[in-house]
């Protein structure tokens, strides 16, 4: 016997696979390829149920039109994509959802559920149309029918909701499927009204039977069962009990029951939810072992690993990360670290959270010792089964030494190039000096011999200074501090440079305090630093002669806590941009006439003494270098 007709509205070839299955189940099938054709067929045949494909053009408007024509029609929506996505979009418009291709048994179960709903709607309509002529008992039947329909929908929606919650958790669906949650609704007469599919599968179809029939022992009575206890105490309860499955197996469970009240405040229904304690214990033990294995693997990785949530909060760190950067779990990553290398919001972590894709890049972080370290970061998105990004795993590898090696190699190449030019100039100067000496000797011209000797001495001095700078840069030696009379030390420096300064027609003005001051310094290194600054002052005065007399002031000053040296010249001065760069390695304001090592070495020497070196200069107004040394630097740094 053919059942009532089914209208299928589907533009895809799935209709050709659904139709034979429906015919085999006893249904008469009418097909439509578009929304317009579907509405016309619906108006003609008025079927009690309709199957529509979610991908059909205009499906939302079509379903609204069908509902306006018949509010009781049952709509089954099919899809070839994720059924959760379709349910979220069309929930409230469609009554049932089915993923294609579907097994015949699944399709039959869904249709039987739709048939049952249609029959219930028809009974309600029949009772409603003749309500005034029916007795009070018939009215009660209508209310009970409506209540039963609502209860069944509550249980079904609750099961769907629990499933969606489990899916949204990482790995949650796996445990949800392994752990049976039994959900049921009972009335105040302790009668089972509705239950979810897991309940029916494990405990059998007990609809309209006693609520206590599944329990063993003292819980197997009306007053002792969880539902009976909730009705008596009128409160939410947690009850330990022993349940007998349909197979005869007895399982201990924890039962949660809660009353549902009507508009008058009386208990009308009781919801009952429980899960097997053995299953819970098994999964808990499995989870514990899995967690232990995860922790061991997580901490055994030789790289630093951190796990962040979508708000950049640190959820987990491994042992190596903790050793390098400290304990920072629970804090926001960018509150702890201010990564360099990338502009704001362009680092690999932020890009992964924005795009949901793996990224990599270099980040500059500060470790436990306060040092900046170059870290190469690889990110991996952690997503739920449905594809939602929930966390980001970041693996860091320290590439600081690699970057230092690259910088050293680059500096070495630059130094070789710079020194080659400078050494070539010195050799050219030596050749010129030797030529003057040679020609003056054979021609008996003493003036030319003296000129050649001066040129040769100048080139030798340049080579000596160049070699000393290279030696210091190539291998920094530790300080060798000793107590010295700082005033006498400054006088020795003046004696070394005074003839050179005055020979360049530059007025030299040393100024020292009268009192004797003893302090601890490395005299050889500090002498090198001061000679570098004075030599630079001499050269800038020669290259940029002033309208008035060129002058270099060399001052030593002393106070209670520090000692200072000031070297001020009347040379050409420097712009602010040059001032910011003069202490950089291989930066020189002299073009090919300088190596760019001298001032770099000078600042390193001052820093080794825990001192500071500052410069004030303006174009056309000369330059002023100031060194400040703490009088007890060696004791402070010890």
Can you walk through the features of this model?
Helix 2 runs parallel beside helix 3, helix 6 packs across helix 7 and helix 17 runs antiparallel to helix 19. With 638 residues, this protein is α+β, with helices and mostly antiparallel strands. The chain folds into five domains: 6-129, 3-Layer(aba) Sandwich (Rossmann fold); 169-282, PAS domain (Beta-Lactamase, 2-Layer Sandwich); 301-397, Beta-Lactamase (2-Layer Sandwich), CATH 3.30.450.20; 403-474; 482-637, Heat Shock Protein 90. 47% of the residues lie in helices and 23% in strands. It has a five-stranded parallel β-sheet with strand order 2-1-3-4-5, sandwiched between helices. It has a five-stranded antiparallel β-sheet with strand order 7-6-10-9-8. Strands 12-11-15-14-13 form a five-stranded antiparallel β-sheet, with helices on both faces. The model is unreliable at 163-179 and 591-595 (pLDDT under 50).
Mean of all residue-level pLDDT scores: 78
Choose one word for the global shape. Answer: elongated
**Strand arrangement, largest sheet?**
2-1-3-4-5
Biggest sheet record: 5 strands, parallel
End-to-end Cα distance: 102 Å
CATH architecture type of the largest domain: 2-Layer Sandwich
| Approximate helicity band | 40-55%
Number of domains: 5
Question: How is the CATH topology of the largest domain named?
Answer: Heat Shock Protein 90
Name given to the CATH homologous superfamily of the largest domain: Histidine kinase-like ATPase, C-terminal domain
**Segments where pLDDT lies below 50 for 5+ residues?**
163-179, 591-595
Total beta strand runs: 22
- At the first level of CATH, the class of the largest domain is Alpha Beta
Q: Count the DSSP helices.
A: 20
User: What is the CA-based Rg, rounded?
Assistant: 45 Å
Derived from helix and strand composition plus strand pairing, the structural class reads: alpha+beta
Q: Which percent range describes the beta-strand content?
A: 15-25%
Keywords: ATP-binding, Kinase, Membrane, Nucleotide-binding, Transferase, Transmembrane, Transmembrane helix, Two-component regulatory system
Pfam families: HATPase_c, PAS_4
GO cellular component, one term: membrane
Catalytic activity: ATP + protein L-histidine = ADP + protein N-phospho-L-histidine
């Amino acid at each position: 016997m053919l059942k009532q007709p089914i209208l299928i509205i589907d533009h895809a070839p799935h209709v050709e696979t659904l139709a034979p299955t429906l015919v085999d189940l006893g249904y008469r099938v009418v097909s439509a390829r578009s929304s317009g054709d579907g509405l016309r067929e619906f108006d003609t045949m008025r079927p009690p149920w309709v199957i529509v494909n979610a991908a059909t053009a205009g499906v939302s408007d079509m379903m609204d039109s069908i509902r306006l024509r018949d509010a009781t029609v049952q709509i089954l929506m099919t899809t070839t994509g994720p059924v959760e996505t379709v349910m979220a979009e069309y929930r409230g418009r469609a009554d049932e959802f089915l993923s294609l291709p579907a097994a015949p048994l699944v399709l039959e179960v869904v249709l039987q559920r739709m048939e049952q709903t249609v029959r219930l709607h028809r009974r309600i309509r029949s009772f409603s149309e003749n309500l005034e002529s029916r007795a009070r008992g018939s009215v009660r039947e209508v209310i009970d029918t409506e209540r039963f329909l609502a209860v069944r929908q509550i249980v079904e929606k609750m099961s769907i909701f629990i499933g969606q919650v489990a899916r949204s958790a990482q790995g949650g669906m796996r445990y949800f499927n392994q752990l049976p949650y039994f959900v049921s609704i009972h009335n105040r007469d302790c009668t089972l009204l509705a239950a979810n599919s897991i309940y029916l599968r494990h405990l059998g179809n007990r609809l309209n039977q006693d609520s206590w029939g599944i329990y063993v022992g003292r819980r197997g009575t009306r007053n002792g069962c969880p539902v009976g206890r909730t009705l008596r105490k009128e409160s939410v309860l947690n009850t330990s009990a022993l349940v007998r499955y349909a197979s005869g197996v007895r399982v201990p469970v924890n039962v949660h029951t809660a009353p549902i009240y009507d508009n008058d405040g009386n208990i009308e229904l009781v919801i009952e939810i429980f899960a097997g304690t053995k299953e819970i214990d098994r999964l808990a033990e499995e989870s514990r072992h899995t967690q232990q294995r995860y922790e061991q693997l997580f901490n055994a990785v030789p790289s630093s690993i951190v796990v962040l949530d979508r708000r950049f909060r640190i959820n987990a760190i491994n042992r190596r990360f903790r050793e390098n950067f400290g304990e920072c779990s629970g804090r926001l990553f960018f509150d702890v670290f201010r990564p360099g290398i990338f502009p704001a919001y362009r680092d690999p972590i932020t890009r992964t959270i924005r795009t949901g894709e793996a990224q990599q890049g270099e980040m500059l972080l500060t470790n436990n010792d306060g040092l900046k370290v170059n870290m190469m970061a690889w990110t991996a998105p952690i997503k739920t089964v449905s594809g939602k990004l929930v966390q980001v795993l970041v693996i860091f590898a320290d590439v600081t030494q690699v970057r230092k090696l690259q910088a050293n190699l680059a500096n070495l190449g630059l130094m070789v190039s710079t020194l080659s030019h400078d050494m070539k100039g010195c050799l050219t100067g030596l050749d010129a000096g030797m030529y003057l000496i040679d020609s003056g000797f054979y021609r008996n011209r003493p003036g030319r011999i003296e000129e050649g000797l001066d040129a040769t001495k100048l080139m030798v001095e340049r080579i000596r200074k160049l070699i000393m700078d290279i030696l210091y840069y190539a291998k920094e030696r530790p300080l060798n501090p000793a107590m010295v009379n700082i005033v006498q030390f400054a006088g020795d420096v003046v004696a070394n440079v005074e003839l050179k300064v005055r020979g360049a027609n530059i007025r030299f003005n040393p100024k020292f305090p009268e009192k004797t001051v003893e302090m601890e310094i490395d005299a050889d290194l500090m002498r090198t630093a001061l000679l570098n600054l004075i030599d630079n002052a001499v050269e800038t005065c020669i290259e940029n002669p002033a309208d008035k007399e060129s002058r270099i002031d060399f001052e030593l000053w002393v106070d209670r806590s520090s000692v200072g040296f000031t070297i001020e010249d009347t040379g050409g001065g420097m712009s602010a941009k040059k001032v910011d760069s003069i202490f950089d390695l291989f930066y020189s304001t002299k073009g090919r006439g300088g190596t760019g090592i001298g001032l770099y070495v000078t600042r390193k020497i001052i820093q080794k003494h825990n001192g500071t070196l500052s410069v004030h200069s303006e174009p056309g107004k000369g330059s002023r270098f100031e060194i400040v040394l703490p009088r007890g630097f060696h004791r402070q740094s010890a």
